């Protein structure tokens, strides 16, 4: 510190005793020295002093020293030392971190670095100027430029990304620095690229096509893959930035065979010939590296990606043995809990929706005695209350992905619950584990098991029917009860907590949807409708109780929507009457909408993966929310369509004024219908005339072709007759002269007559040909006119149909408004009547 003070005194000169200059005065003198000094050494010493002061007096140096420092970068580029001082000083000014020297300075605000960054980039040429120093090979200059750009990007990411994009060869310069032989430079560039590629797809694409994947894999291999240091983690974070939410880079990664290079990195090193991983080998850095590797895999197959890209990557992961390597990690001992959790989530997304991968997961056996399927072992962890919450959520997500669009897997789970499949009582099955969790005293186990069992029924009506056959033994040798009866019984018990009830309501709702048999079985269960009605009539003020009431309303609505009316006194009209008289239509609809207003609904709708910071956040599931979203409006409309007598509301139940308005609209629609029918008949007549004209035109063209052929034949005959006569003359027998002359005259006369007759006939054909040609042209013109009329009629028809659709929509809106206005009017009339 004394050395720095002496250096500053050397630059500024000594002061008089007792007159210690302030920091602002000192900086002002140094700035003036940078501006006015003609000697490079003086300017260099001033920049060195500014760098020393910038850590403690950042505001003073930044406010006064930024313009001269930029001037140094512009004019003194030939001197590496002064440039490095200027770059380091600017980096200290704009950095977001707080220095120890300024900890006691109250004038330094939290975002002072961001403010200086905004001042610096106000002129875009400043960033281009700094980017130019990346070409300098000098270590101090190149590293200073990299660190300054990194600090600028960290403070103003969006603005710097745009400036780097327009900078000449800006991204290419940064990519070239990854091959720098100096590891410090390379590592700093990695940090810069991590900041640069955040959330900008254009820069991500440029970096990817600058051969980034090859360079990053080379660095990871050189550093030791998952056993490497922090550099490996930085490479994987940059790789994750390039792949996340960027379908172009994902496709390029898959087509470049980089998934095959990723697969060997997941092979665990065996210790002492054992296949199990040694827990001591999992250093904190290796855990971080492995976590990033799993994140890279998930970035390729996450459900939010394009389905085409996800399917292609899943197939490659199966063929490259990446899925097998992940399953080996899953079944290995000594794996840290957070890595095991993330591995389960990764396996889930690799198999989601891909039948071959799902089948491969079903064939994985756990190394236990006796061997058990991996699915069974995972479910045992899910219903075990001693396991971590994150791990249990991951297992549920994996089980959901295994069953996603996997009808065979769903059938296999349901079959383990049927009586015919219970051949080996000693072996645990998926169905037995789910029932164990469903009837457990652990609330979370109830919820996990209910949601897992619900996913065996998603979009599979056949398994919903099969699950109705599941029977459960009862104590005391009484008759067995069905699983549906047991679920409804548990739902009505007071000891069954709210979270467990939510799970059962989700299971029952998915079970009943699109399955009239399940609806009938539920309605036959004693006390179920009474319990649902009591829940909806209750006046609870707890937010979670509101959620349960909304789910009960949805379940009751499903009993109306998918009711086949096969049960007496439990028909759709009967349940609607129960709602209207005991609950009220408006109250029912308000309760029904409570589900979508709950915070848990918003969380569950975002993604299929279950994310929860605490056990209390586990309430709704993604598939249930999707079902609710699709049927809520339908159920509300269905319930609102009945009056107190169980009759569906029509225009007959409206007031005279409303009925007159409806009749007016109906009259307009009838008129439009009549006009449409008239236009349709006109269009058919025009089409028929068009067809007749086409047929007549075809006949005329055929006649014309025949006449043309006959005309050609006659011309050929006329040309051949004189030639035949000339050829016959030399062969005649010599006769007396008189006889010969008479015969010759007779022959010529006959030939002239034939020639004249042929010419006359040819002229007749030619005239007929001209007439037919004109008639053909006339028919074509008529055909074109008819086509125009038909097109005009078709356009008029379409316009009329559009007007009719608009009127129908307007009528529907008016009927809805009338229904809303009619309800309070009827209530007022009833009140007045009483």
Automatic annotation (TrEMBL):
Example GO BP: vesicle fusion with Golgi apparatus
Residue ranges the record marks as coiled coil: 669-710, 769-796
Polar residues biased stretches: 12-22
Disordered, as annotated region: 1-22
Keyword terms, alphabetized: Coiled coil, Cytoplasm, Golgi apparatus, Membrane, Repeat
Superkingdom classification of source: Eukaryota
Residue ranges occupied by any Uso1/p115-like vesicle tethering protein C-terminal domain in the UniProt entry: 731-823
PROSITE patterns: ARM_REPEAT
Annotated Gene3D superfamilies: Leucine-rich Repeat Variant (1.25.10.10)
Domain Vesicle tethering protein Uso1/P115-like head stretches: 356-637
Compartment annotation: Cytoplasm; Golgi apparatus membrane
GO CC terms: endoplasmic reticulum; ER to Golgi transport vesicle membrane; Golgi membrane; Golgi stack
Ranges for the ARM repeats: 64-98
Topology of the protein relative to the lipid bilayer: Peripheral membrane protein
UniProt cross-references to InterPro entries, sorted A to Z: ARM-like, ARM-type_fold, Armadillo, P115_Arm_rpt, Uso1_p115_C, Vesicle_P115, Vesicle_Uso1_P115_head
Family as reported in the entry's similarity comment: Belongs to the VDP/USO1/EDE1 family.
Protein name (Swiss-Prot/TrEMBL): General vesicular transport factor p115
Natural source organism: Drosophila navojoa (Fruit fly)
């Amino acid at each position: 510190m004394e050395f720095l003070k002496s250096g500053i005194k050397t630059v500024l000169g000594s002061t008089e005793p007792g007159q210690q200059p302030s920091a602002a005065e000192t900086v002002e003198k140094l700035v003036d020295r940078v501006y006015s000094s003609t000697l490079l050494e003086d300017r260099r010493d001033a920049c060195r002093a500014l760098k020393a002061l910038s850590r403690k007096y950042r505001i003073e140096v930044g406010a006064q020293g930024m313009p001269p420092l930029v001037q140094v970068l512009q004019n003194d580029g030939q001197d590496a030392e002064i440039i490095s001082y200027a770059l380091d000083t600017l980096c200290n000014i704009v950095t977001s971190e707080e220095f120890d020297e300024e900890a006691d300075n109250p004038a330094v605000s939290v975002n002072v670095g961001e403010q200086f960054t905004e001042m610096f980039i106000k002129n875009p040429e400043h960033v281009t100027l700094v980017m130019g120093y990346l070409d300098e090979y000098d270590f101090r200059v190149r590293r200073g430029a990299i660190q300054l750009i990194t600090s600028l990007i960290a403070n103003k990411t969006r603005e710097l990304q745009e400036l780097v994009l327009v900078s000449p060869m800006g991204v290419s310069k940064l990519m070239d620095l990854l091959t720098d032989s100096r590891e410090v430079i390379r590592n700093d560039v990695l940090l810069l690229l991590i900041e640069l590629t955040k959330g900008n797809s254009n820069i991500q694409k440029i970096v990817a096509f600058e051969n980034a994947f090859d360079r990053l894999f080379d660095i990871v291999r050189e550093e030791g893959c998952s056993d490497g240091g922090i550099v490996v983690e930085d490479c994987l974070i940059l790789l994750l930035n390039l792949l996340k939410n960027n379908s172009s880079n994902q496709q390029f990664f898959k087509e470049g065979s980089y998934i095959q290079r990723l697969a060997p990195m997941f092979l665990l090193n065996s210790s002492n010939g054992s296949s199990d991983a040694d827990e001591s080998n999992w250093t904190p850095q290796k855990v971080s590296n492995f976590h990033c590797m799993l994140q890279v895999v998930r970035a390729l197959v996450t459900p939010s990606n394009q389905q085409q890209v996800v399917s292609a990557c899943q197939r490659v992961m199966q063929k490259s043995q990446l899925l097998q390597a992940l399953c080996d990690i899953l079944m290995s001992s000594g794996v840290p809990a957070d890595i095991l959790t993330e591995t389960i989530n990764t396996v889930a997304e690799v198999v989601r929706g891909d039948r071959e991968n799902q089948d491969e997961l079903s064939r994985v056996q756990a190394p236990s005695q006796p061997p058990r399927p991996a699915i069974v072992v995972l479910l045992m962890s899910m219903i075990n209350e001693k396991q971590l919450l994150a791990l249990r959520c991951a297992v549920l997500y994996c089980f959901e992905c295994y069953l996603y669009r996997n009808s065979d897997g769903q059938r296999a789970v349901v079959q383990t619950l049927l009586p015919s499949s219970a051949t080996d009582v000693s072996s645990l099955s998926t169905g037995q584990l789910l029932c164990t969790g469903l009837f457990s005293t652990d609330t979370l186990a109830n919820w996990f098991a209910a949601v897992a069992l619900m996913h065996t029924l998603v979009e599979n009506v056949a398994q919903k029917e099969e699950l109705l056959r599941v029977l459960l033994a009862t104590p005391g040798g009484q008759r067995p009860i069905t699983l549906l009866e047991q679920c409804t019984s548990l739902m009505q018990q007071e000891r069954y907590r709210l979270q467990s009830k939510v799970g059962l309501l989700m299971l029952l709702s998915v079970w009943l949807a699109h399955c009239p048999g399940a609806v009938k079985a539920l309605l036959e269960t004693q006390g179920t409708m009474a319990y649902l009605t009591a829940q909806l009539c209750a006046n609870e003020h707890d937010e979670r109780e509101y959620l349960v009431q909304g789910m009960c309303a949805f379940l009751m609505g499903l009993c109306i929507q998918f009711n086949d009316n096969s049960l007496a006194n439990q028909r759709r009209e009967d349940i609607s009457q129960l709602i209207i008289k005991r609950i009220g239509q408006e109250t029912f609809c308000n309760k029904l909408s409570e589900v979508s207003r709950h915070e848990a609904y918003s969380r569950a709708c975002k993604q299929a993966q279950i994310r929860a910071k605490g056990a209390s956040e586990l309430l709704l599931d993604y598939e249930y929310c999707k079902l609710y979203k699709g049927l809520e409006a339908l159920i509300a409309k269905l319930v609102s369509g009945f009056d107190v007598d169980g009759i569906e509301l029509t225009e007959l139940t409206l007031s005279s004024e409303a009925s007159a308005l409806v009749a007016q609209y109906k009259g307009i629609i009838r008129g439009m219908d009549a006009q449409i029918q008239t236009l349709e008949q006109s269009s058919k007549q025009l089409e028929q005339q068009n067809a007749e004209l086409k047929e007549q035109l075809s006949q005329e063209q055929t006649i014309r072709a025949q006449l043309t052929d006959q005309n050609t034949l006659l011309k050929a005959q006329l040309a051949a007759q004189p030639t035949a006569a000339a050829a016959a003359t030399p062969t005649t027998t010599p006769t007396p002269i008189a006889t010969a002359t008479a015969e010759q005259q007779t022959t010529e006369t006959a030939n002239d007559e034939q020639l004249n007759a042929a010419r006359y006939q040819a002229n007749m054909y030619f005239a007929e040909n001209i007439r037919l040609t004109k008639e053909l042209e006339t028919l074509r013109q008529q055909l074109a006119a008819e086509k125009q009329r038909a097109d005009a009629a078709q356009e008029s028809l379409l316009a009329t149909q559009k007007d009719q659709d608009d009127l129908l929509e307007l009528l529907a809106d008016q009927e809805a408004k009338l229904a809303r206005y009619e309800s309070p009017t009827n209530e007022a009339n009833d009140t007045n009547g009483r």
